Amino acid sequence: MLAYLIRRLGAVIVMLLVVILTTFFIFYVLPKWSGQDIAVLFAGKNSGAEQLEGIRQKLGLSDPLLVQFWEFVKGIPLGRDYGSGDDVTHCGAPCLGYSFRTELPVWETVKDALPVTLALAGGAAVLWLIGGVTVGVVSALKRGSFWDRGAMITALGGVSMPIFFTGMIAMGVFVHSLGWISMDDSLTTKDSIGTWVETMILPWIVLAFLQAAMYARLTRATMLEVLGEDYIRTARAKGVTEPVVIRRHALRSTMTPILTVFGLDLGILIGGAILTETTFNLPGLGQEAVKAIQGKDLPMILGVTLCTALAIALANLVVDLMYAVIDPRVRLG
Amino acid sequence: MSDLKKTGAAVGEPVATDSPAPSAFLEVRDLKVHFPTDDGLVKSVDGLSFQLEKGQTLGIVGESGSGKSVTSLGIMGLHTAGQYGKRKAQISGEIWLDGQELLSTDPDEVRRLRGREMAMIFQDPLSALHPYYSIGKQIVEAYRVHHDVDKKTARKRAIEMLDRVGIPQPDKRVDAYPHEFSGGMRQRAMIAMSLVNNPELLIADEPTTALDVTVQAQILDLIRDLQKEFGSAVIIITHDLGVVAELADNILVMYGGRCVERGPAEKVFYEPQHPYTWGLLGSMPRIDKEQTERLIPVKGSPPSLINIPSGCAFNPRCPYADLPKDNVTREVRPELAESDPGHWSACHLSPEQRERIWTEEIAPKL
């Protein structure tokens, strides 16, 4: 199990390096090839030649690409110094560079936005996993019943309705009409848990509803398949009571495909629940990504992309470990 | 009958039915298992009766879809357990196990008999064992469902059973998972699991079909040895006449959900009465005789269980269907008739015709 863990962690690090290389290439090299000057992106179109040259020097844009790449990678664990001589700006670890737009360190922005996104994705994930799996299991066990049909039609509706639609309606009703909830759109870690929950509760429910709908359908289909397996019949042939057959024998097998999808979904959400964050105006990573892309803020895009990749990799790692706990065949393979 | 019961208290009183409790350990009377589907009623088993005594082995033989497995699952009560939202199987008739009629017994009561009084070995041990639990855990579960003991005691019992079925190093292998076992070992573990509660009735549904030929004989030997040791009644379900030749005291040949011939094994093998049995024997490879002619397959395909042919269900495939007069094979369903004591068959051919065809046409070719 330990060897498995080490192997998986190594794979995560390699994957991150590849992500850095790819994004670095796309964002720093492509503009160069297409004749765009990164220094102009940083300083603005009306800057003088001297100013631009200063920026090139400071950011090390005239260095060979490999050197630039190495400096960037090294900056993440060690921090880095921009410029030379008297004009040195130290960027502490983890250094992801400075935003072109705000001229603040990228990490500062990411650090503020990440908790919002983590809270959004994490809270919604708990809700949708519990809700979706429960509804799916009950639907499978009551297949063809009124409950089953109702739940599956609702789920179909849930899957089909976009989040900005349900989100707008939810906000319209609970925030604007009824005034039950007031949402804080400049959420920081200094705010109280109460403020966080009040701001997050609608996004959680709306996001969870959308996802739970998918999970309910997946759970139901998987459960029905598992219930037809030979080993379920064996369990019954042993005289095991039906609730135990469901809990111990069927549910455990049902969870494997659900976990796989869950790992991907969680990673994607952490990487940017852009629609949800925009709909509810939450200051999370997704919002930052949108702003960065609109402002051609290359270091910011790179920073957000890296965080996303890390989140997806870690979420998948956790899922794979859970997978190994559930299915002994994974451990040995 | 109380002397046959293991624990009198838990089994409960026999339920009153029209007919008296039989003296046989297991008696199936006029069992019908029908499945309603969109295409019509599938009559998987349509009036099957047989008896089985303790210590005896009954081989149920037939091709795919003849109702063999459906019969065994019916005895185990597995057509009614956990059929979520599926259309319910319609089961009628009587199944008497040790003086208790199972079809009229409360399902939870039948569940308590499963695994303890009657146990089952399935065809493919890889899919019949849960892939996520160790062999030991699965045996422990089977034991603890029916015995109020702690895990340690149950584990000891599991190791003991693994040892008994010939698994080497049982104290280590008990923690292995099914995928770490070979096919033969898995089936041994499955047998250990089914016998952990000393069941009086063991149903083996094609126990060797999914195994290598080299281990098939070992598994059959094991089942025979264990039966001698435990004195259980055994039903072996198979399409392989070689398997029943090895094990069975009595043979029941099924076709289209009904019994077409049953009797003592040597009678069915050496004086078979039904053309379908002849066909099965003719299609069986023999190693003890020089093969001069090709195997003779039973022509045609198994009957639709929704529209079972009228008259004798075998008539569309029977080479002798025209011998009886007045088109009787296509219009009247033949009833089982006793040709020798204990040897029954359902065929319109007269005993003389059968005698002649068997000795002149069939036997010389086998």
TrEMBL record, chain A:
Tell me the keywords, alphabetical order: Cell membrane, Membrane, Transmembrane, Transmembrane helix, Transport
Membrane topology type? Multi-pass membrane protein
Ranges annotated as spanning the membrane: 9-30, 116-141, 153-181, 201-218, 257-280, 300-326
- The chain positions of domain ABC transmembrane type-1 read 114-323
InterPro entries referenced in this protein's UniProt entry, alphabetically: BPD_transp_1_N (IPR045621), MetI-like (IPR000515), MetI-like_sf (IPR035906)
Write out the annotated subcellular location.
Answer: Cell membrane
Chief location of this protein within or outside the cell:
membrane
What family is reported?
Belongs to the binding-protein-dependent transport system permease family.
* Full protein name: ABC transporter permease
Q: Which organism is it from?
A: Streptomyces solicavernae
UniProtKB/TrEMBL annotation, chain B:
SUPFAM superfamilies according to UniProt = P-loop containing nucleoside triphosphate hydrolases (SSF52540)
Q: Which Gene3D superfamilies match?
A: P-loop containing nucleotide triphosphate hydrolases
Q: Where is the protein localized?
A: Cell membrane
> Residue span of the signal peptide, if any?
none
| InterPro entries found in the cross-reference section | AAA+_ATPase (IPR003593), ABC_Ni/Peptide_Import (IPR050388), ABC_transporter-like_ATP-bd (IPR003439), ABC_transporter-like_CS (IPR017871), Oligopep_ABC_C (IPR013563), P-loop_NTPase (IPR027417)
One GO MF term on file is: ATP binding
Q: How does it sit in the membrane?
A: Peripheral membrane protein
Principal place where this protein is found?
Answer: membrane
Check the record and name the Pfam families matching this protein: ABC_tran, oligo_HPY
Q: What's in the keyword line of the UniProt record? A: ATP-binding, Cell membrane, Membrane, Nucleotide-binding, Transport
The answer to whether the entry has keyword Cell membrane is yes
Which residues belong to any copy of the ABC transporter domain? 28-281
Which family is this sequence assigned to? Answer: Belongs to the ABC transporter superfamily.
Name by which UniProt lists this protein: ABC transporter ATP-binding protein
What organism is the protein native to?
Answer: Streptomyces solicavernae
